[in-house]
Design a protein that fits this description.
The protein has 2 domains: 149 residues, ornithine cyclodeaminase, domain 1 (2-Layer Sandwich); 164 residues, Rossmann fold (3-Layer(aba) Sandwich). 33% of the residues lie in helices and 28% in strands. It contains 12 helices and 16 strands. The strands form 2 sheets. Strands 1, 2, 3, 4, 5, 6, 7, 14 and 16 form a 9-stranded mixed beta sheet that branches. A 7-stranded parallel beta sheet has the order 10-9-8-11-12-15-13. The chain is globular and about 65 Å long.
Length: 356
Amino acid sequence: MALLINNDVTARVLKMPDAVAAMERVLKQYAEGYAVFQPRTDIWSPTATSGDYYRWGSLLGAMRDPPTLALRFKSDVLRWTEYEGAVTEEWHNMKPGTYCGFIILIDMRNGEIIGLMNDGVLHHVRVGATAGVGAKYLSRPDASVLGVVGSGGMAETYAEAICAVRPIEEIRVFSPTAKNREAFAERMTAKLGIPVLVKENNHEVARDSDIVALCTDSRTPVYTLDMLAAQKPGAFFIRCRLDEIDEPVLQKVDKIFGNGKEPYNEYVIGTTEERARRPNNKEYRRRYQRMDNPVLAEVIAGRVPGRTSATETIYFDNNSAGLQFAAVGRLVYEKAKEAGLGMHIPMEWFQQDIRN
């Protein structure tokens, strides 16, 4: 029997320290050849009736222990707008405020579908947990001040995961909407028991911070060279999207680490004029650029040195990987099963007696 697991169940059973540990284990498997993932693949079509474009996005990952394969897909209608000088991307499924992101979890011992899962909570936690692993291996062990640019769900999980691996004593936050950053500060102060201070701009977030987490949907840079210079010696910073970082910064840091070197794939339907509706300037498309740098998994496995001095500046390119859904999805499935949560669905619904 498969379990149908919604976001409420995931939120009840998934704890950040467990997710961080699950991501550390699967990345070690990846370095040792016991896990693999297919890079993100998008299919675009100019057919959306209530937006600029339709996009199908999928990620696939598999690991040996426990033997799990996860397919995560999204079905989105996208719209791009300019807000306070930054190009932002909004999406929905059918109508604004509703979204379709789904995970199919398979046990590779017998091919059984064991989980059908909403991806909302799990998506934020799996990226945040990977950020936490990155901070554990690449930031200074004594890092105590965290700066966060952004105030949404990803900013919450990044902050929670980093606090799980480093002795953070203070968090600073900035996002363009005052009520959002103030709500984030109030919410996360209560959740983490750590003071969260609201700042008036990105630069004040970075000033004298040990770690900076970039958690925005901006298509123009929100992290610049002067922010890097404003951080404490041995600065560590991490992103959600590559285009959050001004390109000169990438030439200035001492070390860059990624999650994987597999290239992004996309397929586009439409005429030249229809394709031109998508933002395709350098800043937007750079988030899909292949970066040939060492990967975090190699550091975990001891094959590549991570931080070797207290003064190195290090950037972690926390790009998406289907492994995250296999590792954290399996964790959620096991926790939900143990707790007797989720809706049982007969496996017979997914099987047939006609050989395909």
